[in-house]
Amino acid sequence: MRGGGSRLYGSNTRLVLAMALHRVGQFGEARKTLAAAILSFDWKATQTRNHDVWICHLLRPEAEGQVISNLAAFRRGEYRPQDNDERVALLAGQLASCEFEGLQGAAARLYSDAFAAEPK
């Protein structure tokens, strides 16, 4: 999933890889891979007949749910990420969905915490 074949399905491959990494206990690498997958995809691309686009839209919530264990608590405002890897993974997902779910405040809080933890 990391070799040359990973370019065939773009973000779809990375989303599956993130779930696989999480399953084998590589949690930090899973969060980084999830964030990279989400950030590399145009989430506004819904007006298409390309099945890969729709698969990506279906895989993202599944990957987020597996890789980010506190996602539901975060969305309720009851959990704050512990490190920037977790913040970036959450930010990537929230940027993709905040437009539809009204999570702009949560995304703003993540940005603030991420910059405070690592100003560069």
Q: Can you give a write-up of this model?
A:
The structure is a single chain. This protein is mostly helical and 120 residues long. The longest helix has 18 residues, at 84-101. The protein has helices at residues 11-23, 27-39, 51-67, 71-75, 84-101, 104-117. The N and C termini lie far apart (31 Å). The model has no long low-confidence stretch (mean pLDDT 77). α1 runs antiparallel to α2, α2 packs antiparallel against α3 (51-67) and α5 packs antiparallel against α6.
What's the short version?
67% of the residues lie in helices and 0% in strands. It has 6 helices and no strands.
Indicate the topology.
Blueprint: H1 11-23, H2 27-39, H3 51-67, H4 71-75, H5 84-101, H6 104-117
Helix pairs in contact: 1-2, 1-3, 2-3, 2-5, 5-6
What is the radius of gyration?
14 Å
What global shape is seen? globular
Query: Which blocks of ≥5 consecutive residues have pLDDT under 50?
Result: none
* Alpha-beta content class: mainly alpha
Number of domains: 1
Our count of helices gives 6
| Helical proportion, percent range | 55-70%
Q: How big a fraction of the residues is strand?
A: under 5%
Question: Which terms summarize this structure?
Answer:
120 residues; mainly alpha
